[in-house]
UniProtKB/TrEMBL annotation:
It comes from the Bacteria. It comes from Pseudomonas guineae. InterPro entries: CoA-transferase_III_domain (IPR050483), CoA-Trfase_fam_III (IPR003673), CoA-Trfase_III_dom3_sf (IPR044855), CoA-Trfase_III_dom_1_sf (IPR023606). This is Crotonobetainyl-CoA:carnitine CoA-transferase CaiB. One of its GO terms (molecular function) is CoA-transferase activity. Keywords: Transferase. The keyword Metal-binding does not apply.
Amino acid sequence: MSGALSHIRVLDLSRVLAGPWAGQIFGDLGAEVIKVERPGSGDDTRHWGPPYVKDAEGNDSREAAYFQSANRNKQSVTLDFTQPEGQRLVRELVQNCDVLLENFKVGGLAAYGLDYATLNAINPRLIYCSITGFGQNGPYAKRAGYDFMIQGLGGLMSLTGKPDGEEGAGPMKVGVALTDILTGLYATVGVLAALNQREQSGLGQHIDVALLDVQVACLANQAMNYLNTGVSPKRLGNAHPNIVPYQDFPSADGDFIIAVGNDGQFRKLCEVAGLPALADDPRFSSNKARVAHRAELIPLLRQATVFKTTAQWVSLLEQAGVPCGPINDLAQVFADPQVLARGLRIDMPNSLGSSTPQVASPLRLSETPVQYRNAPPLLGEHTEQVLSRHLGLSAEQITALRAAGVL
């Protein structure tokens, strides 16, 4: 069964995470994704280890686990487009591609004749997606942008971490490069929209996606809280600014989460916790009142939760219809019955003679399901295959290009 995007060819000039994440989504959905990498070194994340993928003998390879997270279902081609001959090869590939992904600095590809204006003249149907830290215009446009600094500059770190006055208080980044991931998702949405528009107009377009724009857009309710009050939200640790109780609580053997979303759930929580009077207390009977009296309510609940284990609380609250859950480490995540039932871990045979563990795509399409065709490629693994199939280069021509340092 063909993938939903099996008719699409993507030229992926991006590296690290945001662009490759988008490219992997296209690959999962069936698109042919050609990843262009620097000869000899490749994508920076190939070297961001340990840990590394194991080879057939169980030894560490040179393939970092980080690279494996965003590069399956791609073909790797080594090509030095700082050289004129390499630029020519990229332009020839572009003639037969639908999408180009790149995350170079603003104007960085123009020096090589690989900017949107040049490639649009070659292929007017090309959808050219530029991913940068700050976008194509504005006073920061030429700056490099990295997830960590964007989390700080874009406000996320001001909302993440323990409140001022508590031990360990201070701004904190999210434990994964979330802004990169979200930017990859927005880039994917933008390209899909442009592909749909091309069906009507016959023309491609340029897509400008910036990490900072994405980070600010994804402040969601916190941004609206500020815009409606003029007051910057403060760090609340694991608590929610608009809902109470919606945070972590201590149990007899650790911690767990209670996520009460309405007054009915709060009443059920109070009954299970043996504190039914709290539900009728005017300080706590509505969410608005609970937000105002958060500092009084939370200690009362915490005094009760420490007398049962996390498993006991989860069982009792689930039966009562109160949203709750444990706080798992990754070993517990991948052993969780629901995670196992959904098949969220997969293992793909690789070119090292071993297998590469992967996290499955969350996309479940009934008629055109995600296909796991190829593990993340070795550097330059498909160079000859791609150049001979798409550009008609002979073995002799490819050998000459290698000797010249182009491949």
